[in-house]
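Pipeline run #58 for the internal structure catalog. This entry was flagged by the ingest filter as a single-chain record with no existing model, so it goes straight to prediction. Upstream metadata was stripped on purpose; only the residue string is passed forward. Reviewer on rotation: M.T. Logging verbosity set to normal.
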Amino acid sequence: MPESKSKFLIPAVGAAVVVVGSIAAYMYFKGSPGGSSDALGSAKVVPSTALMATYITTDSQAWAKLQQFGTPEAQKLVAKGLEDFNKQMFSDSNISYEKDIKPWAGGVMIAVLPPNPVKPAQLNVPSGAPNVPTNLQQESNILIVVGIKDKLSALNFANKLKSQKGVKLQESDYQGQKIVETTQNGKPTYSVVLNDSQLVLAPEKQAVQKAIDTFKGQSSFANKEGASSILKGVDVKNSLAQIYVPDYAGMIQQLTAGNPQAKQLPPQTLTQLKQIKSVVAGVGVDDAGVRVKAIANLDPQLNKFQYQSSPGNIVGQFPADTFALISGNGISRGWEALVEQSKDYPEMKQALEQARGQVKIANIDLDKDIFGWMNGEFAFGAIPSNQGVLASVGFGGALVFDTSDRKTAEATLTKLDTLAKTQQINIANRNIGGKDVTEWQIPRQGALLAHGWLDQDTVFVAIGGPIADAVSDRKNPSLDTSDAFKAVTGSLQKPNGGYFYLDMDKTKTVPLINSFVSSNADTITILNSIRGVGFTAISPDKSTSELEMLLALKPTAK
C-alpha cells in the first residue's frame, strides 16, 4: 500500500475527533457510555443517492473467531502481514491501532456515491486541442461512517494526534456543523462528527456536506426504496461484513456510465440487469469456517429461468477421491432459456447459429441431440489419475447425466463414435464392473474417452480410461460418503439447486492449482489452511434467489 494512501484514514479520523474534544470536558466523556452506530444507524446519515454500502463490524469477538482456524504457518503469515501493515500505516508516528484507535472505533460503513465528473480545470490537455469533452472520466465517490463507541478514548487519540508531523487542519462551517479539512502530502480529506457518536469522512468535501444534509433531514440510504428491506442484513453467525445494493441495475448503469472505457449498455442488457432488483450479502465465521450468504430479490415478470431443486443423488456416482465437482439439474431448461434470451441479442443469436452449424456437419442437432435429453440431474467431476493420457496433467474428468430420454442419448453417442472413427480413433468395448463401456482408444496411450450407462437412466462420459474405471466400478466408497465432502457441503442449505465443491485437502489439489496459476510460497501456505470450498444456490420462488458459500478452514492444531 502506497504511503500516501495508507495514511488517508488516520489523520482524518483524528482531525474529526479533535472537534469532539473541543466542545466537551473530560468528565462528560468519562461519564457517558457513548454509542457504536450499527448498520441502520450509519445508513441514516448516508445520502439516498448512494449506489451501495458495506458495513464492517469491529466486534473483536467476531474477528477472534477466525483465530480458531489455520495452520501454524498460516497464522504466522497473517500475524506478520498485520505487523507489516501497522508499521507501514503508522510509520513516522507513535500511533498504534490496538492502543489508540481500536478502543473507540465502532462499526464502519463504506458507501459508494454516484461518481463525480472531472472538472474541466482538472483535465491535463495540451493547449489548442479541439473538441475536448469535459466529462472525459469520472472519479469514484466514497463516504465512510465510523461509529464512536468510547468518546474518552477518541478524545485521547485526538490529543495524541496533534503532536504528529505533517498534519494540517482547517475548519469550516456547514449547516451548523464543523467540517475539518485535513491535508497531508498535498491531498485533502474532509470529516465531521455528527451527534457526538458518528465520524463521517470522505476525500470530497461535497460528500461530507451531503451527509450533513442527510443528518439534517434529507432522504437517507436507510429509507431509500429497496434499501430499507435489505438493511436488516443476512443471517450469518459472527457477522464480519454486510453488503447492501438496493438497485442493482441502477448501480451497474451509473458505474458503467462513469467508466470512459465502457460502452453504453444496450436496452437488452438493461432489461437483463433489471431481473435483479436488489442484493444483500453477509460474511460471517462459524465452526466450519468463513461463510458467505447472499439474497437477490428478483423481478418475477422478467425472470425467465425456471428453478428446480436437485435431488443430490448423482454425487454418489463419483469416487471419494473426486477433488472438484459441479452439479445441478435440468441443463435442457437452461439451454431453452438461453435460446429464448438470444432472440433479443443479435450477437448471441449469431453465436448459437454458428454452434448449430458446426455440429450439423456431423449430422447432430445441437438442440435435440446434445441438450434436449439432458433434462435430469447432472454433475461434472475432476478425479486424480496419472495413468495413460492423463499422466501429464495428473487428473481426468467425468460427466454424469440422468435422463428420461435414453433413446436420444444413445443415438447421439453412436453418432459421436462414428465421427471418431473418421479421425482414425479405435472404438472398442470393455466390461468394467459388469457395465458395458465404449472406449475411444489411442495407440500406446490407452483410452482417450469412454462412455457407458451406470443404470437405466444414468449415462457417463469419462476423459481417460482410468476415470472410466473409477466411475464404473463401485467397489470403492462414493464421494457423498467421504468426510471431506460432508465437511465442506454438509452445512449448506438443502434442498438446493446443486453444488460447486473443491477439496483443497487432497495432496494433489494445491500442486494442480499451482501448475495453472503462478503462486508464491505465501499463497501456498494460505491454500494449505483451506480444507475446501462449497457453494450452492436455492430459489424458493421466482422473486428470490439465495446463494451460500463456505470457505471451510482447517482448525488450529491444539
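catalog note: The chain has a mean pLDDT of 82.
catalog note: The radius of gyration is 29 Å.
status: ready for reviewer M.T.
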